[in-house]
Write a structure and sequence with these properties.
It holds the Pfam family LRV_FeS. Residues 242-268 are annotated as: Disordered. Residues 8-59 form the LRV FeS4 cluster domain. This is LRV FeS4 cluster domain-containing protein. This protein has 268 residues and is an all-alpha fold. Among the domains are: 1-101, Leucine-rich Repeat Variant; 199-268, no CATH class. It contains twelve helices and no strands. The protein has helices spanning 25-28, 44-53, 67-74, 91-98, 115-122, 139-148, 163-172, 178-181, 187-195, 199-202, 211-220, 235-245. Helix 4 (91-98) packs parallel to helix 5 (115-122), helix 5 (115-122) packs parallel to helix 6 (139-148) and helix 6 (139-148) runs parallel beside helix 7. 34% of the residues are buried. The model is unreliable at 253-268 (pLDDT under 50).
């Protein structure tokens, strides 16, 4: 049985005929090969191999009706011809051209209609060039910004609606912001803040509602400060506190952490 990948078809689904190809002379020279390296094929990998071996022909394919052909050709064409592709209707072509151009050509793509282009743009820009993207409508674009931007730019994202963005901010923002982030509504964000706190400041989170935060407190706070966690609702927290303090008695009466809530499922 013949599968689609075993066939040599052009972008319109027609069988490829080497005899009618304008580059048929390359076949005998070993510079193209059916189902392996072909300018007429619809598969990007075969197009890639063709232009790798025949870079001088790439310029002629920047206006090809098939987006994959334009995108691959843009990786090998003369750089001076690429700016026009920044207006290409296909996002793959726009990015293929942009990644070979000087940074100033990337800046207009910060507002590209396609999220994948904006994600890729954000992954190569830094600091002031990234500032407008801190308000991008797509959460993943903002996550990339949070990973790329300098700590000085991260206060713009402290109140971001996406917890994943705020977690990244908590890992990298200046230490003067950690106490504020420790009050975040998301437990994982607070945990990232807790990991950056000194043992003394960490005590402020001893009554956190998230067992992971209390576990972080139990891990690093001074042992003489941990009595409130001896009868913590979470068994892992209790076990750690008992191990660190050497307490072997029965649990104390009354809740250890007034704000702590029992886990709804076994801790892991």
């Amino acid at each position: 049985m013949t599968t689609d990948i075993d066939e040599a078809r052009d972008w319109q689904g027609n069988d490829i005929d080497c005899a009618s190809c304008p580059h048929r002379e390359l076949l005998s020279a070993g510079l193209c090969e059916l189902k392996k390296a072909c300018a007429q094929d619809r598969y990007a990998r075969r197009l890639e191999r063709f232009f790798q071996q025949n870079r001088a022909l790439a310029d002629a394919y920047l206006d090809h009706p098939y987006f994959e052909t334009r995108a691959v050709a843009a990786g090998y064409a003369t750089v001076f011809l690429l700016p026009k592709l920044l207006q290409d209707p296909d996002e793959t072509v726009r990015w293929s051209a942009a990644r070979r151009l000087p940074k100033r050509y990337l800046l207009p793509l910060r507002s590209d209609p396609h999220r994948e282009v904006r994600i890729r743009v954000a992954s190569v820009l830094s600091d002031d060039d990234l500032r407008p993207m801190a308000g991008d409508e797509d959460y993943y674009v903002r996550q990339v910004v949070a990973k790329r931007a300098s700590p000085a730019l991260l206060p713009l994202l402290v109140l971001d609606p996406d917890a994943g963005v705020r977690r990244e901010v908590a890992r990298r923002i200046g230490p003067e912001w950690v106490a504020q982030i420790a009050m975040d509504k998301d437990g994982e964000v607070r945990l990232e803040a807790a990991k950056r706190m000194s043992p003394g400041r960490l005590l402020a989170m001893i009554g956190d509602t998230d067992w992971r935060v209390r576990y972080e407190v139990a891990t690093r706070a001074d042992t003489y400060e941990l009595s409130r966690l001896l009868d913590d609702p979470d068994p892992l927290v209790r076990e750690l506190v008992h191990s660190r303090t050497g307490f072997t008695g029965a649990p104390r009466s009354g809740p250890a952490s007034p704000n702590a809530k029992p886990a709804t499922e076994p801790s892991s």
